[in-house]
Amino acid sequence: MSAADRPEGRTHRLSVVIPVYQGEITLTELLGELDHLTSEFTTPDGNVAVVAEVLLVFDNGPDGSASVIRTLAEKYPMVRPVWLSRNFGQHAATLAGMASSGGDWIVTMDEDGQHDPADIGRMLDVAMRAGASVIYAKPENAAPHGVVRNAASKGAKRAIRALAGGLDTTVYQSYRLMLGEVGRSVAAYAGAGVYLDVALGWVAGDVATCPVLLRAEGGRRSGYNLRSLLSHFWRLVLSSGTRGLRVVSVTGFLFGVAGLLLAIVILVGRLAGDATPAGWTSMVIIVLLTTGAVLFSLGIVAEYIGVAVNMAMGKPLYLIVSDREAGPLGWHRPLP
User: Fold this and answer.
1) Beta strand extents in the chain (DSSP E only)
2) What is the pTM of this model?
């Protein structure tokens, strides 16, 4: 039975949130595709939906994305620019857009064109069939990155799933559909350093996936380098709960057992009359093992403390400002 046949059937209003860092080349084509969804359309299951707004969150990237956003806002009535005071990163920019949205549903997608807006209707159908508040796109083809990066991403998500217990991090994707009230609530309470999908998992009900095909990235280079990818992974680790602290305890225990076994081996060798080395080699090995274990443990504990301190000090996850060209920074005067 279609949405129109049900007494409570209504048009689903969609807010599309796109964090923009390097979208100068790809945004225009992507907005052209989204424009086709700004009139009411019917999904394959008969649900009626419309893209009510597209929030372009400018994350202060190095290219000319700001000018493109201004042009698109003049061309398309549904475009709402969201200006951040500085670069805060993809997750913070996405949360800023979610907090500024007003739709029944929120769709988050990348700026590079690899996410096809035509899949939004099918994602909504999955949400309605499953009664799920969060839907993740499930790529059926390899992401348009290198083989090493794709393998590392899958391996990292599986490792975090094992570490975090109940969180299925393998389904995490930046192409998502979520209930608007869930997304806006998460954006309201999420603290500095939070991993968006972990925060969604804290409050979301049922989570489902929708198969999609990823497209090429529109001829632009990825905005992620090795350092940012490692930072991305570490934020996921710290946001996934306190099981990392258990790793510290287990690591210390294992090194303690290894030290005890080594001591027994040395003692038995001495009693058996084996030639006893001068001792410095064993001492160096023990010192390196124990020191490494202590530093590793302190590092993990310090990271958790750092997250808590940032939240206690009120460090903002993002700050929304006006378009700098519309304010005092844009009041250029000609030189005499």
Assistant:
1) 12-20, 41-42, 48-58, 79-84, 105-108, 134-139, 176-179, 207-212, 320-321
2) 0.72
- Dihedral sign for Cα 200, 109, 172, 128, please: positive
Q: Residue 64 in 3-state DSSP?
A: coil
Q: Are 98 and 184 in contact (CB under 8 A)?
A: yes
Within 10 angstroms of residue 327's Cβ, the number of other Cβ atoms is 11
Q: How many CB atoms lie within 10 A of CB 210?
A: 22
SS3 at position 17: strand
Burial 166-199 (b: 16+ CB within 10 A, else e): ebebbbbbbbbbbbbebbbbbbeebbbbbbbbbb
CA pair distance 152, 229, nearest whole angstrom: 10
What CA–CA distances, in Å, run from 335 to 278, 326, 330? 78, 20, 15
Q: What is the pLDDT of residues 152-201, one digit of tens each?
A: 555 555 555 555 555 566 788 899 999 999 999 989 887 766 778 888 88
CA distances from 15 to 98, 184, 286, 314, 322 (A): 8, 11, 58, 28, 20
Provide the 3-class DSSP secondary structure of residue 114.
coil
- Residue 224 CB partners (closer than 8 Å, separation 6+): 232
196-252 pLDDT tens trace: 888 888 788 789 999 999 998 765 555 555 566 566 566 666 556 555 566 666 676
Beta strand 41-42 with 48-58 is antiparallel
DSSP class of 143: -
Q: Name every residue whose Cβ is closer than 8 Å to that of residue 79 and which is 6 or more positions away in sequence.
A: 31, 53, 54, 56, 69, 72, 73
